Task: inverse folding
């Protein structure tokens, strides 16, 4: 069976204006990811990993080169066009959770399904399943102010995967968590990767994540300096 390309990036350059000059955040990046991969964009602060993740997710655009995600060209697309691609096919996990504090766990997780016009009965089924996946069934009516950091991040994960996206992007998802919660979350994501075939891309420099990744893209000064496939998972 042929493996599908999820991400295809060619000769990517990203520049940001700085006064009368510019700063080159990404230089001549070429990258392909196939369906079901579980990879990390790894490097120190300023290496370009978050910029690359944002371009893949359509939150930013390239200065030069081409970016195709899930068969959709991200070049010369409008903000609204990229938003539709994100809403339908992607999930996002952020370092700061980005939960809506006035909403319960259930309501936060339900939001992507409402935006995708899923009927109420189907929403309830999918939300309950996603909350069960992350082990928060007993917290479904709780709000973020009443939960721990680990529980908030698990809620964010449930929200990201409730519509079973083809691609999930995670920006430093364990940076605010202790070692125990970090390992629990990575085990959840690894399990989901194998169960629903979602492709995962992490931007991280957290050593706790490294043992779970199956491919590591090392970035330095905006360039890919190494592309390493991991033959054995160390932490599962």
Result:
């Amino acid at each position: 069976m042929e493996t599908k390309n999820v991400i295809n990036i060619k000769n990517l350059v990203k520049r940001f204006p700085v006064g009368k000059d510019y700063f080159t955040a990404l230089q001549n990046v070429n990258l392909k990811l196939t369906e079901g991969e579980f990879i990390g964009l790894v490097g120190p602060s300023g290496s370009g990993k978050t910029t690359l993740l944002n371009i893949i997710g359509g939150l930013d655009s390239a200065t030069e080169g081409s970016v195709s995600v899930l068969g959709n060209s991200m070049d010369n697309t409008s903000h609204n066009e990229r938003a539709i691609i994100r809403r339908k096919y992607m999930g996002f996990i952020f370092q700061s959770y980005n939960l809506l504090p006035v909403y319960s766990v259930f309501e936060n997780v339900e939001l992507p399904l409402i935006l995708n016009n899923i009927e109420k009965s189907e929403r309830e089924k999918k939300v309950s399943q996603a909350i069960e996946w992350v082990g928060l069934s007993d917290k479904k009516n709780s709000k973020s102010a009443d939960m721990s950091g680990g529980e908030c991040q698990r809620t964010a994960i449930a929200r990201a995967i409730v519509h079973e996206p083809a691609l999930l992007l995670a920006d430093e998802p364990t940076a605010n968590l202790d070692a125990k919660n970090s390992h629990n979350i990575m085990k959840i994501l690894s399990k989901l990767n194998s169960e629903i075939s979602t492709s995962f891309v992490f931007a991280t420099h957290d050593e706790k994540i490294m043992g779970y990744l199956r491919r590591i893209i090392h970035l330095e000064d905006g360039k890919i300096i190494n592309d390493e496939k991991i033959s054995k998972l160390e932490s599962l």
